[in-house]
Amino acid sequence: MKIERNQIVEKLIQIVGNQRVITDEQVLKDSSFDRFRKYEGYHHIYTQPIPSALVYVKSAQEVSEILQFANDNHINVVPRTGHSATEGGLETAVENTIIIDGSKMNNIVKIDTYNMQATCQCGVSLQVLDDLLREQGYTTGHSPQSKPLAQMGGLVATRSIGQFSTLYGGIEDMVVGVEAVFPNGEIAKIKNVPRRAAGPDIRHVVIGNEGALCYITEVTVKIFKFMPDNNVFLGFTLDHMKTGFEILREVMVNGYKPSVARLYDVEDGAYHFSHFAKDKCVLIFMAEGPKGITEATAKAIEEIVSRYDECKKVEDHYIKEWFDDLNWDPKKIEEEKVEILETKNVGNTTEVSSNWGKIIDIYQVCIERIRKEIPDITMVGAHSSHSYLNGTNLYFVYYYDVNCKPEEEISKYHLPIKKIIVEETLNAGGSMCHHHGVGKHRAPWIQEEYGSSYYILETLKKAFDPNGIMNAGTIIPIKK
Ligand SMILES: Cc1cc2nc3c(=O)[nH]c(=O)nc-3n(C[C@H](O)[C@H](O)[C@H](O)COP(=O)(O)OP(=O)(O)OC[C@H]3O[C@@H](n4cnc5c(N)ncnc54)[C@H](O)[C@@H]3O)c2cc1C
After folding, report:
1. Is 35 helix (H, G, I), strand (E, B) or coil?
2. Does some domain include residue 470?
3. What separation in Å is there between the alpha carbon of 152 and the centre of ligand 1?
4. What are φ and ψ of residue 449, in 5° steps?
5. Edge-to-edge order in the sheet of strand 175-181
6. Is the pLDDT of residue 323 over 90?
7. How far is the CA of 291 from the centre of ligand 1 (A)?
């Protein structure tokens, strides 16, 4: 029998008390979407089913009781922490969804500088944790642009990556152990050890699950020594993206580990570096760590770059200054909102990855098709911001003037652009998601992304979430 909205609210109050169950209509409307629908949201247009309640949890036990109730009654839940998602992971795609918000689970449980790890509840802000660590001479090494917004649960759930990833890796390289709650109420804790060979690495069932398999309640991450005095910044202008990709590849395949290795095309670069790089691509590197290593890394990179005549060095301070202002906080989000409402010019992004052999083709074909096929485009560009031994990522940035009703913006502009990038990347054998997650808007291509390994993903979903209550439509599309 279908359970009514007021019965859902009553049960939630029974579990956590009435202070932490929110039913205010405006709050619920604002909780029915994420930044994928920011343009609709700025116009107070709500196209998603309004959730039944938003509930703030304070312990794994409370999450367990709520999930058991939702599972028994086939009620959809959307896990949430920092609310900075960009791909529709927070959209409440079905009626009567419960939003389980972990942002009040914000205790830093333990900072263990001998064993070099920190344990946090899911709602700990990355900015807060990293600031605290830096005061003591340590860092998480994790620095996504959303560092002031995102929280540990969401960062692990989306398989996030930070700007210093070339040295420290993505969150998957940092997570030591994790605690998660499954739809049947089971609380599962994976212990903290340096390595294990005891069967499959089940941390990866949890990391990147986007709230579609389980609820993350606690995370333990590695910490690193923080030595900012040794940082070296390098910047170069150049004429061609192809040359830039070649240089990035040379740096990576020869075993150097700068913390930052980024390549901007002319259009994207113009947004950031117009004061020193007019009509030029821009290459940026940063080396971190012990002095001997940073100096050797910087020297080697300069030597590699010097082989390419078109590269011209820029003053290092430009690069440092740019980094200092890169992250997004609530103030920048508010400024963006004002500008978008004033200009009707909207910017969005899509990030993909591929092996070195295909990256330039993906870059060229996507830029060409977007310019040709999408109306009202005012800017399209891209940068590579995370490189690996065997390839790199591409982060497409695009702006368009919205010449339609706010609720048509997604179907007229945002999705057609995403479709071009996703399809061209998949055709070239790349991955359609580098770090923002699948959310709900790349789910239609999930079978193509996985190929024959989709069997493993689908089996995980069926095993852990047989009633399909975990974030319906995220990663795996809702069957029509
Ligand atoms: C301006 C801006 C810059 C960004 N820069 C980066 C970047 O540099 N690198 C990067 O990787 N990402 C970036 N992002 C994307 C986003 O910040 C990350 O995906 C981040 O990890 C989300 O964390 P959150 O706490 O805000 O999660 P939320 O937005 O609350 O949730 C994100 C997803 O995770 C799920 N989820 C949240 N909490 C839990 C939980 N406890 N258990 C299970 N599932 C959960 C949600 O259901 C949702 O699907 C950026 C976003 C913005 C707006």
Report:
1. helix
2. no
3. 9
4. -60, -45
5. 108-112, 117-121, 215-222, 175-181, 187-190
6. no
7. 33
Q: What is the pLDDT of residues 375-410, one digit of tens each?
A: 999 999 999 999 999 999 999 999 999 999 999 999
Question: Which of 34, 145, 214 maximizes ligand 1 atoms within 8 Å of its Cβ, making it the mutation to test the pocket?
Answer: 145
Among candidate residues 225, 242, 270, the one where a domain is terminated: 225
Dist CA 343 CA 249 (whole Å): 39
Same domain assignment for residues 24 and 76: yes
Place of tokens 């359609």: 432
Position 32 scores a pLDDT of 98
Q: Give 113's pLDDT tier (boundaries 50, 70, 90).
A: very high
Q: Is residue 467 part of a domain?
A: no
Residues 388 and 370 in one domain: yes
Task: Indicate which residue's Cα is closest to atom 10 of ligand 1.
Answer: 160
Q: Which residues line ligand 1 (CB under 6 A)?
A: 35, 78-86, 89-90, 102, 122, 144-146, 149-151, 153-155, 157-158, 160-161, 210-211, 215-216, 328, 435-437, 471, 474
- Mark whether 212 and 275 lie in a shared domain: no
CATH code of the domain containing 159 = 3.30.465.10
The token duo for 231 is 């940082």
Convert the pLDDT of each residue in 265-301 to its tens digit.
999 999 889 888 889 999 999 999 999 999 999 999 9
CATH number for the domain that contains residue 353: 3.30.300.330
Provide the domain limits for residue 129.
Answer: 108-225
In a domain, 149, yes or no: yes
